[in-house]
Amino acid sequence: MESTERILVHACCASCSSYVLEYLLEKYDVTAYYYNPNIQPEAEYRLRLGDVRTVCGRLGIPLIEGPEELEEWNAAIAPYAHLPEKSERCRVCYRLSLEKTAGMAAEAGIGLFTTTLSVSPHKIHAWIVEEGRASGEKYGVIFLEEDFKKKGGFHESCRKSREHGLTRQDAGGCLFSLEEARLRRKGPDSGR
Fold first, then answer.
1. Pick from 116, 141, 117, 138: nearest CA to 6
2. CA-CA distance, 119 to 167, in Å (whole number)?
3. Where are any strands of DSSP class E within 23-134?
4. End-to-end Cα distance, the chain
5. How many domains does the chain have?
6. CA-based nearest residue to 94, from 186, 173, 31, 7
7. What Rg, from alpha-carbon coordinates, does the chain have?
8. Residue 141's CATH number
9. Minimal CA–CA distance to 24: which of 157, 139, 127, 122?
10. How far is Cα 58 from Cα 179, in angstroms, rounded to an integer?
11. CA distance 111 to 139
């Protein structure tokens, strides 16, 4: 069955995208959008972008590469820098990515958009949905609210990552989450 409805998919990284993009190809005409100003340092940003290019190439999916915009991201996150992962800091990050994706969808004439973020059990799906809806309303496009981790989606994304030799991360990608992951690896007394 040939997909006719177009969808723009915010791709946070290749490990999440590998499953979600392939899953969506069964129903939609998919275009991926790499917009991740939170990813640091620069080498990590480039690594993730390279892996997303590989996944899109393998699946035959067009990829739009968004601007880096690290300064804008830092300014938006600054009031929440002291907060831990799964806090308002992350919600603001979701908002930035989803607003940019909704705007790109509208600009490209694509009426539907979503994000690979929801395949991760470390992300708060309810916030993703709220921010996606608000972004869609702002730009006149519809947010696909699917929770991609359901029905084994997260485990399938892990399997596909291993199968294709993709980089898997243990942090969201910003310097805050990298530091939190480093402390988790060191153990419970590492923050003292």
1. 141
2. 16
3. 29-34, 63-65, 112-115
4. 57
5. 1
6. 173
7. 16
8. 3.40.50.620
9. 157
10. 33
11. 10
Q: Is there a domain that residue 191 lies in? A: no
Query: What is this structure's pTM?
Result: 0.88
- Token pair listed for 126: 């309810």
Domain-located, residue 192: no
Task: Look up the domain containing 11 and give its range.
Answer: 6-186
> Which range has the worst mean pLDDT, 25-29, 136-140, 175-179?
175-179
Token pair, residue 3, equals 């997909």
Report pLDDT digits (tens) over 74-117: 999 999 989 988 899 999 999 999 999 999 999 999 999 999 99
CA distances from 35 to 104, 110, 146 (A): 10, 16, 20
pLDDT at 95: 96
